[in-house]
Amino acid sequence: MKINESAENYLETILILGKKHPVVRSVDVATELGFKKSSVSVAMKNLRENGHITVSKEGFITLTSSGRDIAEMIYERHELLSSWLSKLGVDAKIAVEDACRIEHVISRESFEALKKYIDVK
After folding, report:
1. Which CATH number is associated with domain 70-120?
2. In which band, very low, low, confident or very high, does the pLDDT at 121 lie, cut at 50, 70 and 90?
3. pLDDT at 3
4. Distance between CA atoms of 82 and 59, rounded to whole angstroms?
5. What DSSP designation does 55 have?
6. Angle at 34 between CA 92 and CA 59, to 5 degrees
7. Cα distance between residue 113 and residue 73, in whole Å
8. In this predicted structure, what is the pLDDT of residue 119?
């Protein structure tokens, strides 16, 4: 299933926050991304309606299996790409910024080929 870059970023952020904190709420996502709570609220509604998250009555956000799959795919791409760019001599901050852009547009086939190439090196 193809989803937009914004949704992928939200899912990745929920995954990362879930690794750091016992629960994730919309306010946590807004704070992490520097977005308005109202914008995050709309995004969470869309993610919920598309079956990528569930939200408890207390406001705790949980990734569904489809949401987790997408988040983990994007997170893996981000980690590998930013690390690889840094090893190539790119400034760490720029490497992270570039990885954030590349992770959303690279095809699965190209990423897998790149991953195999990097693992060989």
Report:
1. 1.10.60
2. low
3. 85
4. 32
5. E
6. 120
7. 15
8. 79
